[in-house]
């Protein structure tokens, strides 16, 4: 038998990885929410290796830009050459270029800048100008080198002379940018009023629109930088343009909704939102398993519906059922108590997962849910809970809402009409279905405690 190896006897082999290299040519944001800082965070979050050429140093925070200093042209060029001569750069994005001289410098190196994403930064989210007025015309030569140019509505208006106030004018502005030489143009709709944000991707082959609900927040600092960096990194991975743009828009939508509340201003987008959400999958699954074990040990037979009980937990930034972990096959009543049919899996639940996501739309702090049977005894036991109890009647469900989406619709309605975020929602469902009780909580321990309170209330009222 071999003797055990000691740490001092071992030399471990390295295990290198080779992510695609992405270069950002942009300004530095001392506040960390935009510019080079946002770019590198986003590139790394999208599994790229971020490199940079800093054009300007800004004194900046969430309230605005207090000052900026343009680096000497030769220093900017030295950074670009240092990166392109050593690294196999797979994609490049530009941000704050500040002057026509810097724009001309990037154009001069365009042959060494593949998958060039041009974000024509002109004004910060705070309203502070980041591009000299004389440099606006210089952008046309850089646009001609772009794989995709990503202006917002205001920037598109400056570049094309065309006001952008709806998807049709966005499409026309995009075609103008292609006539300037760009391979494609993504005209962003964040600055266009409306409940829905419509981003318009125009190529020689056609037009693709991306729609998502507008987030009610002013914390959009760094949004343009994040989107263009995400698109560049996905192109570096070999994604086609439409997929790269769609992936970037999805990341940005989450980054804006789950923004970072830092500083005295509106705050910044959360560049690592998807990375942190993915990292939370295992702890979330383990929390659901812990809740299941507690409910099995506590024998919650009196609360288990005939169809079985579902315990579900969402990752911190869950937006879809595949980010919700649940008991596969539910918890069933047995002659000697209750037992889960199988283990915990993401995507195992539909009805309860969608109801949980509906609750999160109203209160994003909610992460866990369980469905219980609805009887008079159970409903009376809900009075033991410390919090608001709300309800819905499936008979009021609009025709446009399918029967499968009743619980999702009902939870949304209950939260909308409740005085505060309810801890329980009673669903009085259709004939032949006894309905359900959904309990919600911000963490697994709170969910366990609420189930135990209701179980004890049922026992005392028998």
From TrEMBL:
Cross-referenced NCBIfam families: HMP-P_kinase (TIGR00097)
Keyword Disulfide bond: no
Keyword Translocase: no
MF GO annotations: ATP binding; hydroxymethylpyrimidine kinase activity; phosphomethylpyrimidine kinase activity
InterPro entries: Aldolase_II/adducin_N_sf (IPR036409), HMP/HMP-P_kinase_dom (IPR004399), PM/HMP-P_kinase-1 (IPR013749), Ribokinase-like (IPR029056), ThiN (IPR019293)
Gene Ontology BP terms: thiamine biosynthetic process
PANTHER family cross-referenced by the UniProt entry: HYDROXYMETHYLPYRIMIDINE_PHOSPHOMETHYLPYRIMIDINE KINASE THI20-RELATED, PHOSPHOMETHYLPYRIMIDINE KINASE
Pfam families associated with the record: Phos_pyr_kin, ThiN
Domain Pyridoxamine kinase/Phosphomethylpyrimidine kinase: 29-269
Origin: domain of life: Archaea
Segments forming domain Thiamine-phosphate synthase ThiN: 288-452
GO CC annotations, alphabetized: cytosol
CDD domains for the chain: HMPP_kinase
Name the UniProt record assigns to this protein: Phosphomethylpyrimidine kinase
Keyword annotations from UniProtKB, A to Z: ATP-binding, Kinase, Nucleotide-binding, Transferase
């Amino acid at each position: 038998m071999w003797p055990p190896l000691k740490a001092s006897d071992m030399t471990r082999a390295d295990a290198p990885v080779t992510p695609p290299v992405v270069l950002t040519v942009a300004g530095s944001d001392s506040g960390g929410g935009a510019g080079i800082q946002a770019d590198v965070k986003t590139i790394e979050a999208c599994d790229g290796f971020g490199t940079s050429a800093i054009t300007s140093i800004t004194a900046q925070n969430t309230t605005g830009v207090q000052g900026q200093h343009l680096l000497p042209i030769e220093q900017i060029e030295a950074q670009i050459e240092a990166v392109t001569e050593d690294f196999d750069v797979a994609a490049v994005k530009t941000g704050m270029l500040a002057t026509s001289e810097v724009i001309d410098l990037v154009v001069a190196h365009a042959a060494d800048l593949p998958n060039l994403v041009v974000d024509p930064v002109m004004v910060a989210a705070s309203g502070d100008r980041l591009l000299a007025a004389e440099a606006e015309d210089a952008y046309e030569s850089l646009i001609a080198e772009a794989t995709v140019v990503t202006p917002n509505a205001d920037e598109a208006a400056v570049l094309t002379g065309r006001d952008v106030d709806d998807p049709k004018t966005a499409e026309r502005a995009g075609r103008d940018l292609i006539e300037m030489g760009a391979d494609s143009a993504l005209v962003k709709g964040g600055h266009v009023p409306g409940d829905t944000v419509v981003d318009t991707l125009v190529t020689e082959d056609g037009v693709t629109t991306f729609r998502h609900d507008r987030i009610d927040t002013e914390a959009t600092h760094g949004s343009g930088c994040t989107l263009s960096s995400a698109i560049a990194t996905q192109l570096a991975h070999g994604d086609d343009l439409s997929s790269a743009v769609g992936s970037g828009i999805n990341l940005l939508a989450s980054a804006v909704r789950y923004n970072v509340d830092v500083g005295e201003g509106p705050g910044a987008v959360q560049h690592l939102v998807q990375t942190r959400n993915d990292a939370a999958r295992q702890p979330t699954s383990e929390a659901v398993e812990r809740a299941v074990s507690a409910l099995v040990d506590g024998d919650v037979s009196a609360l288990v519906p005939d169809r079985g009980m579902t315990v579900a937990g969402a990752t911190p930034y869950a937006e879809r059922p595949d980010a919700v972990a649940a008991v596969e096959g539910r918890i069933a009543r047995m002659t000697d108590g209750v037992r889960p049919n199988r283990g915990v899996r993401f995507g195992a639940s539909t009805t309860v997962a969608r109801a949980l996501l509906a609750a999160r739309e109203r209160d994003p702090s909610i992460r866990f849910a369980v469905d219980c049977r609805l009887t008079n005894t159970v409903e009376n036991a809900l009075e033991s809970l410390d919090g608001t109890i709300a309800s819905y009647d499936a008979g009021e469900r609009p025709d446009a809402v399918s029967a499968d989406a009743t619980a999702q619709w009902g939870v949304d309605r209950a939260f909308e009409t409740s005085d505060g975020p309810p801890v329980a929602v009673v669903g009085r469902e259709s004939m032949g279905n006894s309905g359900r009780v959904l309990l919600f909580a911000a963490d697994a321990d709170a969910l366990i405690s609420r189930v135990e309170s209701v179980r004890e209330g049922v026992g005392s009222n028998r």
